[in-house]
Predict the 3D structure of the following.
Amino acid sequence: MSFSHFTKLNTPHFYFVHLLKINPNYALAYNNRGRTRLDLEDKQGAIDDHNQALKINPNYAAAYALRGYARRQLGDNQGAITDYNQALKINPNYSDVYRARGDMRFITWSDYRAALEDYNQALKINPNDTNAYSSRGLTRDQLGDKQGAINDYQQVLKINPNNYSARGIARDKLGDKQGAITDYTQAIKINPNNASTYIGRGKSRSDLGDKQGAIQDYNQAIKINPNIALAYFNRGIDYRELGDKQAAIQDYTQAIKINPNDADVYYNRGNIYRELGDNQAAIQDYNQSIKINPNYANAYLNRGVANYNLGDRQAAIQDYNQALKINPNDALAYRNRGLTRSDLGDKQAAIQDYTQAIKINPNFADAYYSRGNAYYLLENNQAAILDYQQAVKLYQQQGGNEEWLRKAQDKIRELQR
């Protein structure tokens, strides 16, 4: 997703200083000097110049647009959106501003439907805007429109194969991670100050297993713009996968500070708290995630696990019920509810849940093992042996679960004496 919404100027800064000495009421000169200052990373100086341009000409759409962009870079999201709205009020055909506002709605507030409307409008005005296509593709992906997203990515490649940043997004989403990295690297050579390109390359590197390389890219993105929540979120994911859970929590917390309306960030931080044994803190994060997105099935599922860990079996069952209401094909939710029902003494209901989990996922070794336990407790030894044997077979095939493999083998030996 591109943050470079407005074309750079190659005119030297001193040129505008000279013009303003000749005519101190020249709004265009203030606006263009502000744009040059923005290119030089002098964001506050840029805002000062755009303020002066707007003082001279209150109907200067470009000045509102550029001031909004500078405010966005400084973390003043509300000021930025106000400026974008005003720019569009003055000039309703300003495609770059629709795209810029769409990116804010996507990244800052996770308001994907509003972002989609902005990208649609940008493309209606300028049907050759590859950056808008790539951003709309990401938005459609978030909204579950996979085919629409693919169509947008393919359109990027068709219109301008030399827009390396947009092409990098398209290649990444179409599965060509290495090609995406090559494109992002080329885009960075052309413009080394675009934070979003580093984020894109970092994500592609992470997907290929290069977590350290990804973290380096996210570090650079944050250095360029410390107010992009996505960079902290992605870096937090990689820190967690590398085992540095405290660093991950710090990144998720910073992402929440920038964008308190992203359910995924609360969910991910909640998962780490739960893994660290702080189930109460985990529940608070899952609560917030569900508040933002009441249809977040995994948040209900994992809140159920945290409630189970705290001994609140009834709350756990309620959470698993809600998770299954949203996603009736979640084998893990059935298995977890089965465990909880078994703890409460309802072995038959537990067996029904384990059976449903196996129906959804016939390779779910834990579900066979758990159902075997339920049959064992009901003294249905033959059925228990069959489930333990299937669990052993799957554990051996899948690997990585030696403890439960050994337990299943011990149960079989016990029942066959």
User: Anything to note?
Assistant: The two ends are 64 Å apart (CA to CA). The CA atoms of residues 26 and 213 lie 47 Å apart. The chain is about 75% helix and 0% strand.
